[in-house]
Design goal:
This protein has nine helices and twelve strands. It is an alpha/beta fold and about 260 residues long. It has one domain: Alpha-Beta Complex (Spore Coat Polysaccharide Biosynthesis Protein SpsA, Chain A). The structure holds cytidine-5'-monophosphate.
Length: about 260
């Protein structure tokens, strides 16, 4: 097994989703952003942070083009002494994380899981997550205060026509709500335990798990929160692509002030 310095951090970049909502007809990780495939930007962003002794990218099986793109970053990572590997992801995001967990190098004690769909995450966010892990957190997530009022809803029908709509069933206090981003950082053993616990969950319970922190919460472990960044947007819709390109090379670039 590959070895890194004891006490090192590995960063997993999950890039095995289909990303059809972008409407490009190719997996999201291959969609170009300011001339570079999204996954390459994400990998280069992680290399730049200096937090990773190992980078492992999970990509869809049977995508030789994406494999070639990822491998083109291998030399850049290795030049910085970073162990670099690519694994085949799975059907669900948690399957892709599990595949990457199996290839973690000897000596790694903390791990960050990062979405390839957030290629603009500033180094400051990685550094804040790394600092909280060093300060003893077993799980730490970056997040932002929510600006919209959030409602919970349920199916309903309009009184006069019976037309199917939704109705409000609750309004959680906005002051305690946070929008959660990646990279999410963990003590490696804790994340491994959380994934082992996930094997005992039902399919419905698993389908409700949308991030790694939820798996750790299910263990009863405390999950700490550090400041995220508005630049860490998750690229999901064509509008997100426009914003990301404007941040990278458009009129918003000179105003890139957030760490
Ligand atoms: O689908 P969603 O936008 O939540 O995906 C978030 C991240 O998880 C993306 O970077 C995507 O490539 C990754 N993913 C994955 N394997 C899956 C599903 C999603 O690596 N099966």
């Amino acid at each position: 097994m590959t070895e890194v310095k004891a006490g090192s951090c590995a960063v997993v970049i999950v890039a095995a989703g289909s990303g059809q909502r972008l409407g490009y007809g190719v997996p999201k990780a291959r969609v170009p952003l300011a001339g570079q495939p999204m996954v390459l930007l994400a990998i280069r962003g992680v290399i730049k942070t200096g937090v990773a002794a190992q980078i492992c990218v999970a990509i869809p099986p049977d995508d030789p083009q994406l494999l070639t793109i990822c491998q083109s970053a291998a030399a850049e990572a290795q030049a910085k002494g970073i162990v670099f590997s690519v694994v085949e992801g799975g059907a669900e995001r948690s399957d892709s994380v599990a595949a990457a967990l199996a290839s973690v190098a000897e000596g790694v004690t903390t791990i960050m899981i990062h979405d390839a769909a957030r290629p603009l995450t500033p180094s400051g966010v990685f550094n804040r997550v790394a600092a909280a892990l060093r300060d003893g957190a077993k799980a730490v997530i970056p997040a932002l205060a929510v600006v919209d009022t959030i409602k919970t809803v349920a199916p309903a029908t309009l009184p006069a026509t019976g037309a199917g709509v939704e109705k409000v069933v609750g309004t959680p206090a906005r002051s305690v709500l946070r929008a959660v981003q990646t990279p999410q950082g963990f003590d490696l053993d804790t994340l491994r335990q959380a994934h082992a616990h996930a094997l005992t969950l039902s399919d419905d319970e698993l389908a409700a798990i949308t991030d790694d922190a939820m798996l750790v919460e299910a263990l009863g472990e405390e999950v700490f929160v550090v400041q995220g960044s508005t630049h860490s947007l998750k690229i999901t819709s064509p509008t997100d692509l426009l914003v990301a390109e404007a941040l990278l090379e458009g009129p918003l670039r000179p105003r890139w002030i957030e760490g």
